[in-house]
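Duplicate of earlier report; Lon proteolytic domain-containing protein input re-posted below.
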Amino acid sequence: MLSRLSRPKALAVCALPAVALLATALLAPLPFAVAQPGTTADVLGRNKGEPVITIKGAPSRKAEGRLLMTTIVATGPDAQVDFGDVLDNWFRTDRAVMPRDSVYPSGDTTEEIERHNLDDMTESQDSATAAALSYLGRADEDLDVRLKLADVGGPSAGLLFALGIVDKLDGDGAGGGLTGGRTIAGTGTIDADGRVGAVGGVELKTQAARRDGASVFLVPEDECSQAKAELPEGLRLIPVTDLKGTVKSLRALEQGRKVPSC
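Output:
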């Protein structure tokens, strides 16, 4: 025999599946990662007790100021990010919700991603060395350039590595250093021809830079708008497109001449 439910009871019973579906949706993992400002490292100095840049076959200049490469820290590739995590972090200026594929573009496992990031770092170091020596006209010299940076992967330190090599070998080309004694930070990939590429996460990297004392941030030109979105007070942005232009801007900054801005 069928019995009739009153309207309130019927609505309550019908709502149960909807509530269950909503709860499942809220708790279901989403294809996002939550990122925040990471560490910085001075490519003109030491990291974990080891010099970041070592050059044999030519004299190296003593560092003046600092050149900081910047990083972000993100939830791991195996981390479960749900709707609540997204909601909690969406409006925070010191956090960013990013598509997982933009943070971990290759590999399905933690091991594959770490291997890919280390390969990217190695390729970035090789490109930075080639770009710097080519810019200085010393590509054919018998120089042994070694770059070492512990616990950091990916290609985004390429520009800072290249600048560090240029500074150690030639400074500003007129007896001074590229930094002018400042703490200058930045980010950007680089290829062997010296072209600078975008990296992502720049609005978080500017925060890491300012936190660690930088007053100037070198940003790939295509990412100026992102860098300006959450720019910390007291941090000046300089857009860059290639190694030659970056060195030119740093020289102009040191000499008090006009420098490009975002």
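The chain has one domain: 37-74+109-254.

Merging into the original ticket.
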